[in-house]
Amino acid sequence: MGSGQIWGLFMARTTGSDGEKTEAALREAAVSLMARHGYEAVSMRQLAAEVGVQAAALYRYFPTKEDLLFTLMREHMEGLIGAWEGTRPLMADPAERLAAFVGNHIRFHVARRHSTHVSNMELRSLSRENLTHILRLRTSYEKELRQILRDGVETGTFLVDDTGLTAMAIIQMVTGVIVWFRPDERLSVDEVTETYLSMTLRLVGAETKNIKNLREKRDVHAFDEFRAG
Q1: Per-domain residue ranges for the chain?
Q2: Smaller CB count within 10 Å for the chain: N or C?
C-alpha cells in the first residue's frame, strides 16, 4: 500500500472519529437546550453556536430540527427498554419483578434528567409518523409493567382492578422523581427507590407480609453481592 493510500485511510478514520464526536456533542447540547428553553425556542443556529460549528454543518447529521428531536426521543426510549431487558429478573415472582422495574425506571431517569424532560414534554412537537413510532416504543415498555401486574393478580400477590390504569399511575409516579430529586440532598437514589417501591407495592394492594418478605429477599441478595464483590 502506497503512502498516499495510507494517508487517505488515516484521514478517513480521523474524519469519521471527529464526525461521531460532533454528532454526540450536538445531541448532548440539544437535550440540554431543549430541556431548559423548549423545543420551539431552540434554533439550529443556536445549537451550532453551542457546539462551536457552522450552522450548515448541522444538516449533515440531522436534515431538520425535528429529525434531531425524534432521534433524541427514540434513543431515550430504546435506552430505557434496553436497560430493562438487561435488568429483568428471569425467574422471579411478580413482587420481585415489580421491584426491579421500579428500581430500573427511577435510576435510568435520574441519570438522564434533561432527556426525560424533553421526551415527556415535546411529544406535541413530533409529526404524526414520528409520534406514532415513539408511542409504539412506550407501549412496548408499558406492556412489561402491565404483564407484571397481571401476573401478580393471577397469583394473588396484587389486588388491582384495572392493570392498564394502575400501570400508567405507577409510571407517572416513579418518573416524577426527577422533578424534585437532587443527588446532593438528604436522600440517596437507593433510599428514594426504596420509598417509592413501598408506595408502589401499597398501590397494587400487596399485603404487608409480602412487602416484608420482598425486603428480606432484597437484603439477602444485596449481602450476597457484597460478599461476591
Answers
A1: 1-63, 64-228
A2: C
Distance in angstroms (rounded) separating the CA atoms of residues 227 and 229: 5
Alpha helices in 155-207 (DSSP H): 163-175, 177-180, 189-203
Q: Shortest CA distance to 58 belongs to which of 74, 47, 42?
A: 47
- Does the pLDDT of residue 223 top 50, yes or no? no
Phi and psi at residue 223, in whole multiples of 5°?
Answer: -65, -40
Distance CA 37, CA 32 (A): 9
Do 117 and 35 contact (CB within 8 A), yes or no?
yes
The upper half-sphere exposure of residue 190, i.e. CA atoms within 13 Å in the direction of its Cβ, equals 3
d(CA 136, CA 80): 13
Q: Is the pLDDT of residue 227 over 70?
A: no
pLDDT of residue 21: 87
Question: Torsions phi, psi of 43, nearest 5?
Answer: -100, 160
CATH class of 1-63: mainly alpha
CATH superfamily to which 64-228 belongs: Tetracycline Repressor, domain 2 (1.10.357.10)
The predicted pLDDT at position 9 comes to 41
Assigned C-alpha cell, 40: 420551539
